[in-house]
Write a structure and sequence with these properties.
mainly alpha; globular
């Protein structure tokens, strides 16, 4: 076990840190270009993109994805990065020790508690069994078994969701039917929390002094890391296997962080890296990319409106957006865009870039689940505490935007505002308002923006902007109190602000906590039945499984590896009734009425010979039949074989 852990650590280091770090320091020419935390996070996200793009490239060249091929490719990229850094690096000025040791101590305590809460949730269900994760890991298993990337033919799937799992398994030798997927998703989730913290600090630092911006960052970390710690799309998604959402929730705030940092430092290289990561996002998760694109359109709209207000209402005739344009429109950003486009046209086109896939996502809502969530549903999914303080945060930012141009010295001193830059203030307000409001409208009123996607999935993306806005809202309330007051009054206000969030967050945890330990035993028995079928069933002998009652049934395909749609599956009964189009019913009838003429006809048509069911659930008709024999049984799982 220790040897396995060492192999996983080395594999994760090579895949999720070294390539990104080498390229980052080569491009920025300093060992610690973004600070310790920023360098760590961007290195991880950049490595994820480098692994995806490099493996897509060598696969396109016909090279098998063997351990030697993967290691040599990534080491070559990393070596080039380190050599370029050695040649072109510049000396860094010595930095004085941080004066905010107390703040960093709170940071580590919040992160530790956030990790603890997620581990409490995940440990009882560390054995993979959920439906979505089973579907996704089939494609990771495909990469492992055949040492090449799959061609899906399904617009709902995209290659970036699966490469990292396959690559880690290939290098470490740890099979995908293990805790490995949950470990990788857990790491991604923790880094997404860190990315939110960094983004919040950078956005706040454009308006507030350093100590105030760090305080706001800590508030955001509490809102996203501790309150509602396992709500969607948090640890429940890690266990549930909504892979693309989790990766998107790491990529999106990191991209925004790089853009904000580029503006703050007037560094077009950071802007180019952000554009490269947009390409990574496009290859990782279509819905995340779709929401991100709408958010950028919203940002542009808010930015233009704000520019007009500054120029014509506040009479700032000298205000110019030329610095903004120079950072984001130059040779570096154009080169990054061309690199992504070359991959799209010459290496691999994302599976969703076709007219039929686009048509299913854009247009008037076509189903009841796509007409928008009610306000109450949105508040519940985002969290009442976060939603309340998000609203306060929006009002606070608008108030700052209005008051800061009035040169109110009292207001500036109270909230520790820095010497303002109109462009930076406009970017902060426009980004946060657009990010939140656009997603809110997409999930509450999708017809307005012509969105034809399940509203509940879009609403999950409201979690992160709401956490940042809530941090600004909390700061708006607490700062005046602590600025003027100490002792009992300040403590009482602090408790009024945070106790509802703690209560609501812990209630969410208690609702979602997996107290049913039996799921592990049920899953293990399903896996044993799957191993038996993988050994006994010939490739031409079809298998039917039951998705309604069988625990971990989607993982059966990972044992068989016969194709994404095998074995056949008896699904939820409501899915067999569709007023729009005719559905196949054989997978239902072969379980429900196997002895009838309809059932027998279905067996002949499909060629099904083996049926795996949950013991005691729809098994009686097979037990009393002479046409079927029970060939495998456990307390939870039973397998029948058709005799003729």
């Amino acid at each position: 076990m220790i040897f396995d852990l060492i192999k996983i650590d080395l594999s994760l280091g090579l895949l999720l840190f070294i390539p990104g770090y080498s390229i980052l320091i080569a491009l920025l020419r300093t060992k610690n270009p973004l600070g310790t935390l920023g360098t760590l996070i961007v290195s991880v996200v950049l490595s994820l993109g480098i692994v995806n793009f490099s493996l897509m490239l060598i696969n396109r060249l016909g090279i098998k994805l063997t351990p030697i091929a993967i290691i040599s490719t990534l080491l070559t990229i990393s070596t080039v990065g380190f050599i370029l850094f050695g040649i072109f690096h510049k000396k860094e000025p010595r930095k004085s020790p941080s004066e905010n040791d107390r703040g960093w101590l709170l940071f580590f305590l919040i992160i530790a508690f956030s990790v603890f809460l997620r581990m409490i949730y995940l440990i009882p269900k560390i054995i993979p069994h959920t439906t979505d994760l089973g579907h996704h890991m089939y494609w990771a298993n495909f990469i492992i078994k055949f040492q090449q990337l799959p061609i899906y033919g399904i617009p709902d799937l995209i290659i970036g969701e699966h490469i990292i799992f396959g690559a880690v398994s290939i290098l470490s030798g740890i099979g995908i039917i293990s805790a490995l997927p949950a470990i990788i998703l857990f790491i991604i989730n923790i880094f997404s929390l860190l990315a939110i913290f960094l983004l919040t600090v950078e956005l706040a630092s454009l308006i507030f002094e350093k100590k105030a911006s760090h305080k706001i960052g800590l508030f955001s970390l509490i809102a996203i890391g501790i309150f509602y710690a396992i709500a969607s799309p948090q640890a429940t998604y890690i266990n549930g296997g909504v892979v693309g959402n989790l990766m998107g929730n790491l990529l999106v705030p990191t991209i925004f962080y790089l853009f904000v940092k580029a503006l703050k430092q007037r560094n077009s290289t950071l802007a180019g890296l952000g554009i490269f990561l947009i390409g990574v996002l496009a290859y990782t998760h279509h819905l995340s990319a779709f929401v991100f694109a709408y958010s950028l359109v919203g940002f542009s709209t808010f930015f233009i409106v704000g520019f007009g207000i500054i120029k014509f209402v506040f009479k700032k005739n000298d205000f110019s957006i030329n610095p903004f344009l120079k950072i984001f429109i130059n040779l570096k950003t154009v080169s990054a865009s061309l690199l992504v486009l070359l991959f799209v046209f010459l290496v691999r086109i994302p599976s969703y870039l076709n007219l039929s896939a686009i048509d299913t996502a854009v247009g008037s809502p076509s189903k009841e689940t796509r007409v928008g969530l009610s306000l109450n549903n949105l508040i519940h999914s985002t969290g009442p505490w976060r939603m309340l303080y998000s609203a306060i945060g929006i009002l606070f930012l608008l108030f700052i935007f209005w008051q800061i141009f009035k040169k109110s010295s009292l207001f500036k001193k109270l909230y520790r505002l820095k010497k303002f830059n109109p462009l930076e203030i406009l970017v902060t307000v426009s980004l946060l308002l657009a990010w939140f409001i656009i997603i809110f409208v997409m999930s509450h009123w999708p017809a307005l923006l012509k969105i034809d996607i399940i509203s509940g999935r879009i609403a999950n993306y409201l979690t992160y902007p709401s956490a940042i806005l809530a941090a600004f809202g909390v700061y708006a309330i607490l700062q005046p109190i602590f600025y003027k007051t100490r002792g009992v009054v300040a403590l009482a206000v602090f408790m009024v602000v945070f106790i509802p969030g703690i209560t609501s967050g812990l209630f969410d945890v208690s609702e979602a906590y997996p107290d049913n330990q039996a799921d592990i035993e049920k899953t293990v028995q399903t896996f044993r039945g799957s191993e038996y079928l993988a050994e006994e069933a010939k490739p031409e002998e079809k298998i039917l499984k039951d998705h309604v009652y069988l625990t971990g049934d989607t993982w059966i395909k990972n044992f068989l590896m016969r194709g994404y749609r095998e074995p056949l599956s008896r699904t939820l009964l409501k899915r067999y009734s569709d007023p729009v189009k005719e559905r196949e019913t054989c997978t239902r009838d072969m379980v429900a009425i196997p002895e009838t003429e309809i059932g027998e006809s279905c067996f002949q048509e499909t060629g099904v010979k083996f049926i795996i069911l949950r013991n005691g659930y729809d098994t009686h008709q097979f037990e009393i039949s002479d046409n079927f024999s029970k060939i495998f049984t456990t307390p939870e799982v039973v397998i029948f074989q058709k005799n003729n």
